[in-house]
Design goal:
This protein is of the alpha+beta class. It has one helix spanning about 10-60, and strands at about 65-70, 85-90, 110-115, 125-130, 140-145, 150-155, 155, 160-165, 175-180, 185-190.
Length: about 200
């Protein structure tokens, strides 16, 4: 005669209690891990975009601009880099951008998009730029690389620090990194708190 087997009600209840305890203990750690991963990912994506802007400017012998963008086609983001950014050939030097994608060699004589980055999905993360002010004493909203790979504006060298910051539900900073662009065009990531200036809240 075949014997029936399975979980008893007691065994099932004990299992559920153990799973609940593990979830309570491991939940915060998992969230911290996920936020840390997103922080690294966002920083690396920005570094990659800056490298593309610089290398394309040198390769194509044209001005290439990177700027904040909320629509993915023009420099419409102001200071809100976490809403996305674009990299484009800035043929006329007006820092406006265009909706057209670079598709041929002929495009390098007009404004056209080289790369588009959408909004950062993590709502508790911000990407702000600090340490560089424009002629109106406002945070810089774009960087333009010359054909020599130097970030310049109206002939003057320019540098900047992007602060990538993560917050918890109480708007406390739980992690931050800096993406540093030097006047030579070199890009690096820093964990030095002295160069990171996070906003008060996301």
């Amino acid at each position: 005669m075949k014997k029936n087997s399975g979980f008893t009600l007691t065994e099932l209840m004990v299992t559920l209690v153990i799973v609940g305890i593990i979830a309570v203990i491991g939940g915060p750690s998992l969230r911290t891990f996920v936020q840390g991963s997103q922080l690294v990912s966002s920083s690396n994506e920005l570094v990659s975009a800056l490298h593309v802007a610089r290398s394309e400017a040198i390769k194509l012998n044209r001005r290439v601009t990177i700027c904040a963008s909320i629509d993915g086609v023009s420099c419409s983001g102001g200071e809100k880099w976490q809403k996305g950014w674009i990299v484009f050939i800035d043929a006329n030097g007006d820092h406006v951008g265009t909706g057209s994608t670079c598709s041929s060699v002929a495009d390098i004589n007009t404004d056209c998009l080289l790369r588009v980055h959408d909004v950062i999905d993590e709502v508790s993360q911000t990407l702000s730029i600090t340490g560089t002010l424009d002629s109106n004493n406002q945070p810089v909203q774009w960087f333009t690389f010359t054909s020599r790979g130097l970030p310049k504006e109206a002939g003057s060298s320019r540098s900047g620090v992007f602060a990538v910051c993560s917050f918890d539900d109480s708007n406390n900073i739980v992690g931050s990194r800096a993406v540093v662009l030097s006047v030579s065009g070199r890009v690096r990531i820093s964990d030095n708190a002295a160069v990171i200036s996070c906003p008060a809240a996301p």
